[in-house]
Amino acid sequence: MTVVFTITFTLLCVAGLLTVVRLLRGRTTLDRIIALDVFVTLIVAATCVGMGMQLDGANIALAAAFALLVFIGSISAARLVEKKERYR
């Protein structure tokens, strides 16, 4: 089972690096907002994998609530940017 966790963490790290590149080189504000949302989702996923590795699911509700708050924040920011850039 340790091999599965190692492979999962490795893939999450690679995805995180690609997301950081997209965050830094994004052309528009919406690209950067989406990249930030994906990055936080990867952090929550890595946290959940770590909880699975330790066989401790005590913080799963906290991770879900944090992911939901970040998602709502991203949607709000995307709508704000969309309204602002539409009238240019």
UniProtKB/TrEMBL annotation:
Protein's name in the database: Multicomponent Na+:H+ antiporter subunit F
Keywords, alphabetical: Cell membrane, Membrane, Transmembrane, Transmembrane helix, Transport
PANTHER family in alphabetical order: NA(+)/H(+) ANTIPORTER SUBUNIT F1, NA(+)_H(+) ANTIPORTER SUBUNIT F
Family according to the record: Belongs to the CPA3 antiporters (TC 2.A.63) subunit F family.
UniProt subcellular location: Cell membrane
Major place of residence: membrane
Species: Halosaccharopolyspora lacisalsi
GO terms for cellular component: plasma membrane
Bilayer topology term: Multi-pass membrane protein
One function term, GO molecular function aspect: sodium:proton antiporter activity
Alphabetized Pfam families for the sequence: MrpF_PhaF
Signal sequence coordinates: none
Superkingdom as given in the UniProt entry: Bacteria
Chain ranges passing through the membrane: 6-24, 33-54, 60-81
Positions in coiled-coil regions: none
